[in-house]
């Protein structure tokens, strides 16, 4: 061991002491637990949690995401309903499909894959989804519930980040968390979740002054900005935990590779870091299945309550 360390020092490489957070393994455990729960539901009643995914157009990346959502949904034992619509689909036709899915008792979760073609109004489509079936957690009713600490369906990516943080650190009370990025999909809900865990939360964004001096004060740094390797080693305090939500394709020396928003190789002094790929990314579909199961359970509870009321 001593020889190994000496070799690293001689090679003038900083020693990498940070734990590498294995999101892939964590997500596999999460989906395995969901699979067991779905099998129990199937053996106890004639209902099955169902997820409907809507894809408009032919975007290749979206097409790959939707295919893997279908595969994982089916593997978990849930019903998967896929709706692929042409990119000439009108707003009215898309809204009509959402209305049909809202009314369909076999569908407990609805996800409209984003981005939508430019002629479509994504906000209006999201607002048309029944908040009880909004497994993306994008509806303003769910965003509002999250903000006031009520039982919301929470966006999948920040939910996955929070699961990893709690698993690693346990109690987050009093820790200073800096969230870099203020999107409705990641940054804002992430900040709300951290606040619920009694962290002191700073939200930084493109107009923040001296970003590095802000992140340097943090115990937890979550980065979701879509800028390859923007966060450098000297932006991070020794012992801090770094969650990298970015997935960026870069071409270097004629070779293409995926990198995060954080310069991973410079994070050896951190307590822990999520790699890209294999960190936050794999958690997202697991959380989507978790939200679908949660939406199913709440629907069952509502059905039971209304049956009791009518009896
Ligand atoms: N496109 C990329 N990620 C997502 C996601 O989490 N939800 C939806 N609806 N679209 C996406």
Report on the architecture of this protein.
It is built from ten helices and eleven strands. It is α/β, with parallel strands linked by helices and 311 residues long. Among the domains are: 46-130, Leucine Dehydrogenase, chain A, domain 1 (Rossmann fold), CATH 3.40.50; 155-282, NAD(P)-binding Rossmann-like Domain (Rossmann fold, 3-Layer(aba) Sandwich). Helix 3 links the parallel strand 2 and strand 3. It is globular. Guanine binds at residues 111-114, 136, 156.
Task: Please identify which CATH superfamily of the domain at 155-282 we are dealing with.
Answer: NAD(P)-binding Rossmann-like Domain
How would you characterize the largest beta sheet?
6 strands, parallel
The fold-level CATH name of the domain at 155-282 is: Rossmann fold
Strand fraction equals: 15-25%
CATH class category label of the domain at 155-282: Alpha Beta
What is the number of helical segments per DSSP (H or I, 4+ residues)?
Answer: 10
Bound molecules: guanine
Rg, please? 21 Å
The order of strands across the largest sheet is 1-11-8-7-5-6
Q: Helix- and strand-based class?
A: alpha/beta
* End-to-end distance: 71 Å
What's the pLDDT, averaged over the residues?
95
Which SSEs are present, and which pair or pack?
Blueprint: H1 2-10, E1 19-20, H2 23-44, E2 50-56, H3 60-75, E3 79-85, H4 91-103, E4 109-112, H5 122-128, H6 140-148, H7 156-169, E5 176-180, H8 187-196, E6 200-204, H9 211-215, E7 220-223, E8 241-244, E9 248-252, E10 255-259, E11 272-273, H10 281-310
Helix pairs in contact: 2-10, 7-8, 7-10
Guanine binds next to β4.
């Amino acid at each position: 061991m001593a020889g190994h360390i000496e070799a690293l020092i001689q090679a003038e490489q900083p020693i990498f002491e940070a734990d590498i957070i294995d999101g892939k393994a964590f997500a596999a455990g999460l989906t395995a637990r969901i699979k067991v729960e779905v099998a129990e539901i199937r053996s106890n009643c004639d209902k099955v949690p169902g997820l409907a995914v809507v894809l408009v157009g032919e975007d290749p990346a979206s097409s790959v995401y939707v295919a893997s959502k279908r595969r994982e949904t089916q593997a978990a034992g849930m019903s998967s309903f896929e709706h692929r619509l042409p990119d000439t689909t009108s707003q009215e036709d898309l809204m009509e499909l959402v209305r049909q899915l809202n009314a369909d008792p076999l569908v407990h979760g609805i996800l409209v894959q984003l981005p939508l073609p430019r002629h479509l109004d994504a906000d209006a489509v999201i607002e048309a989804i029944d908040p009880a079936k909004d497994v993306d957690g994008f509806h303003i009713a769910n965003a509002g519930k999250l903000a006031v600490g009520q039982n919301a369906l929470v966006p999948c990516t920040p939910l996955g980040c929070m699961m990893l943080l709690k698993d690693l650190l346990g109690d987050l009370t009093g820790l200073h968390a800096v969230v870099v990025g203020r999107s409705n999909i990641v940054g804002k809900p992430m900040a709300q979740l951290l606040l619920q865990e009694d962290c002191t939360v700073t939200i930084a964004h493109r107009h923040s002054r001296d970003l590095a001096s802000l992140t340097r004060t943090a115990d937890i740094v979550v980065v979701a900005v879509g800028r390859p390797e923007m966060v450098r080693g000297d932006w991070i305090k020794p012992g801090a935990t770094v969650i990298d939500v970015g997935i960026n394709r870069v071409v270097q020396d004629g070779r293409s590779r995926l990198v995060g928003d954080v310069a991973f190789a410079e994070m050896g002094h951190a307590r822990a870091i999520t790699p890209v790929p294999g960190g936050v990314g794999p958690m997202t579909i697991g959380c989507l299945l978790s939200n679908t199961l949660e939406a199913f359970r709440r629907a069952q509870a509502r059905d039971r309550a209304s049956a009791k009321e009518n009896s």
